[in-house]
Design goal:
Blueprint (H helix, E strand, L loop, with lengths): L2 H5 L2 E2 L10 E2 L6 H9 L4 H7 L5 H15 L3 H6 L2
Amino acid sequence: MTREELLRRVTVDPKVCSGKPCIRGTRVYIAVILDGLAEGLTPAELLDHYPHLTLDDIHAALAYAAELSRENIWKLASGS
C-alpha cells in the first residue's frame, strides 16, 4: 500500500472524536495506536485490543506520524 493510500485511512473531522485524527470509519485515535506501540505493544496485541482495525490501519497511523514529524501535515489538510 502506498503512503498516500495509507494516509487516506486517516480522517480529521470536527464531528468525529472532537476533530482528533482517527482511523476512518472508527473512533480509534491515531494517538492511541501510537501510544500503544510506544509502550511496547506489538501490532498483533493492538489488533487484539481493537479487532475492527487492520494492520494497514496501524501502518496508516505510523505514516501519519511520519508526516507530522516532517511537518508536512498542513499539505494533507490543504489538499496539496
